[in-house]
């Protein structure tokens, strides 16, 4: 027994080892063939896989990059519910099915770099609610739709660089509320629109380098005001306007290198008070610096400024004013000749100045610069390469080794002179004006001529209609032309030209541009009706440049009773004109005329003065059915209309009556005819004849629903044929007038087709029918009495009959 116990004891001791080994063998089998497994991560990269192998269900990370996978929708992924990192870079994936990720709800990182994706289908990522980083770079995407990233509410980093993106639709990133970094470099974008930036309120880093951006809509930055880093390098920007970065007040790093920037407004960078790094290298800023603009004035926190390769030839005085914390200034590969006094900031924080120009003018005006460089301890290796070129005795000498006592100003240097000063111009609004300025530079030096308005530099702008050109005559005389198209009041101001060579500047006199605006009315006189003895109020006001003078005419003349009798008054502080103690003779057409050197304008109004003592006013109501013809008649007594020169004035609701082919005047003005009356024709009509006024109220009665529909459909068809009817206007008017006379006679007499006519006819027929019935009844009762022969029965026969029937 003891021997048996010693025999079985080793077996019991080996059981735990056997179980552990079995478990290890099971784990080894769970890792796919040729893949590498570590903890909960599986690496199946660079295996030329066409399909994913069967994977352990509990893995957290999977790397299947550098294979030949053509689709993501693989059954092997459906079971990976704990997967957090998925890398499928450098495969042949060409499409994303919308249901491929429905089981990967825990996924946090997804990279699909260097595949063949051409589009992002709708709701492709809608189930990836926990995704933090998405990399779709190096694909073939051409546009981003508004629904492309639906559901990615927690994504913080999005890579879309190196695609073929040329269009980003409105609100494309609206679902990425938590996005912090967006990479769009190396695409084909041409503008930064204000609509596709919507929703990026938390964005801190935006990379747009290596695109073709030539336009930036500054209002778009209001959607990403938390931006800290902005890279716009290697684009096609040519100008920075005054408000281009006005919403980016938190920006710390701005890269604008390798563009074609040649114009910077003085206020373009003024809102970037927190900026620490600014790269403007590889642009064309020579004109900006030669003009003496202070574009860095508000950058008090800037530490690094890169101005390499900008063709700078001179640095004006205090050009770097405001850079109080600058530590590094790079001016490499600029052929700088002139350093104006205090052009380099002499501040304690400045540690490095990178300068390698070999064209420096070393004379008495450069003594301050050479002294500063020789004493400074911050000299960098590039500064030691700067050399003098002028005058010839110092040519080739290192800047830091020139003796200060040899820096003199006795050497002649060519200076530009202005031959023809620009002239003041007075232009009419909308006209095109041109300034010209001619200069000469002795010694054949090259010059630059630019223009300023109110001492602010002007730049050519197609949108603003401003252009300038420079002509060179024999390499000696230079003429610049400044053309302003369609001038308006904002173009008024003082202009001057600036002529610059490498060493100095000459400016012309200030000349004015005055834009004259023809008079235009801000208040027009209105038709007025008054009575004798009353006060008449006329309003008339005009504006323009210069301010116009206003005067009045009556019936085309300057002499009229109110002015002659001093009853015409003007309020000095207002635009109101009064005629007091009005007379009947004051009636007529009054013209308000605004006149200035830019032109004149004329407005007319009719004044009617009525005599109450002779005023006869009558009032009449006129009712007509919808669609019928209405005839309104003024006082028709022959003594009032016999004079052919008498004018009858009609008005509708107090406004002058407008005639058309449906509403016209007949009978020398005393008859107003309205064909096919409509609801809009209702109201008060007034006719004035020889001081007498008659008012007529027209009421248009509605028809039944069916009749109204027929009328409106007929009216609509008639309106569609208005253009065709215009060709036969005269013939139609004659026909309408003749038919109108017939209809008017019906209205004045009896119209059997009217409702009243039908009722009367029916009543008459009923009376006639009733009378006929009564006549028949009376005739029947009045016939002569008939002869009746009565045959009395025989009593004997009657008794015989009675016996037979048993009575």
UniProtKB/TrEMBL annotation:
Residues 710-742 are annotated as: Disordered. Its main location: membrane. Residues 416-508, 519-608, 613-704 form the Ig-like domain. Residues 1-30 form the signal peptide. One of its GO terms (cellular component) is plasma membrane. Keywords: Cell membrane, Disulfide bond, Immunoglobulin domain, Leucine-rich repeat, Membrane, Repeat, Signal, Transmembrane, Transmembrane helix. Pfam families: I-set, Ig_3, LRR_8. It is found in: Cell membrane. The chain crosses the membrane at residues 752-777. Gene3D superfamilies: Immunoglobulins, Ribonuclease Inhibitor. InterPro entries: Ig-like_dom (IPR007110), Ig-like_dom_sf (IPR036179), Ig-like_fold (IPR013783), Ig_I-set (IPR013098), Ig_sub (IPR003599), Ig_sub2 (IPR003598), Leu-rich_rpt (IPR001611), Leu-rich_rpt_typical-subtyp (IPR003591). This is Leucine-rich repeats and immunoglobulin-like domains protein 2. It comes from Trichinella zimbabwensis. The gene is LRIG2.
